[in-house]
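Progress against Task 2.4 (sequence-to-structure conversion) is shown through the following example record, which the project officer requested during the mid-term review.
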Amino acid sequence: MANDWMNIPWLDGRVLILAFIVWVILLKRWEKNGTLDRWNAGRALGFILMIRTQKGRKILDNLARPKSAWRAYGELSLWVCRGAMFLVLILVLLTFVIAIISPPKEPPKASELVAIPGLNPVIPLGWGAMAFIISLVIHEYGHGLQARAHGMRVRSFGLLLLGPLPLGAFAEPEGDELMKAPSRERQRLFAAGPATNIFAAFLCLLLLGAIATQFSPAVAGVHPQSMVSESGADEAGLQPYDSILSMNGTPTPSLRTFSEVMATFSPEQNVSMLIKRAESGEQETLNVTLSNKYQHYVELGWNKDELEAGGIEPESAFLGVVGLSEATNGIDRLAGPFDPDWNGNVFSRILYSPFHMLTVLITPFEYSGVSIHPLEEAKLSTDGALGTETLLFMVNLMFWLVWVNILLGFTNLIPMVPFDGGHMFRDMVHDGLSKLSRLGERVKLWGGWHPMKIEHAAGKATAYSSLAILFMLLFSILIPYLL
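Structure tokens generated for the chain above:
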């Protein structure tokens, strides 16, 4: 499978902790004896090595030459990030409220609390590291392009390292020029990084949809994801992801044909079902006794209106499968609204895209760190020149780029310092207080506030809000350990 070589087994947690401690000690020693100064390097967050370089500035200058276009991009980024920052704040508040009302009974493992590829069980080392490096470069170049578009110099580029693992790159603008820049320009610069990640995620999602058009079913049948206990399928020995090729000799290559065939059967009828085992690939014939679908859903608590809406009649036959899907389900699920078989117009595709991105974030948790279940990957084929393995590699790369760019973009929009969202929030508060001061002076309610007073108030508001958000985040994470 295309996943195999990238899903490197993550190391024992104790080894990683020991290696991390050794790395921090080395960094402190190098900082003390002047080694970092000789390398033109420094430390970030105490454990990340920042190696600075002057190379790459000419490339950045060339890319930023259409300054008016990049300023317009910065303005678009600002509005996108303001909306996204509001959603992030709502999500933080909802998480905090839910943690108070209904705290989780089982605390998460320590490895699940850090988004480190290979250490977090749902982020594979290979795919995760590759996607994080690319996404961080995208993020920092977004900042750098906005800095140059607004005439601010970029002092240096750099590489971020955690031991031998590269975490990404950074663009370091001149601090004095950044602080002296107009508030609007500074906000565009802070917004450009997260917005570029969000736009990159959307672009990768489009590419994922384009790649999905190249796949076709390798198996002409439908497959269930699980079975109803003690149902006909369960008792006959059908297993998850086994392909149902035919029922009583009638082929079932799609959900539509399967439904049509099942409509010809009745409860308690014994049928012959030809399947292809997902694990071995061998074909086998199972004898299945169908049950009553109507009675099954009545026992689950469905009322008459719900049964009628679902098209379930008193004599409907029931095989007893859950999550029945076609062979291309794995790639169709990832492509979402950009899948070639999506039922909807261009407007509905765009409207549904943000919601689909949320389902993308959940995918690694549902499938234990992979984008497509390996048994569903085996049901895909292509007649294209690139071949199935190459296309599956591209699918996984696009998926993890979508996943990491969304994670990186929205995390940086948490309205607390030192995230980009915190810096944006501070400037937004400063601008709001300045406008309020001018309004009061204009209507002669008060004589206006001194700029230093506004500066001080904005800083205090940002500090207090950052502490409040930090408390809510820590409370939501730690409450299971405290109960």
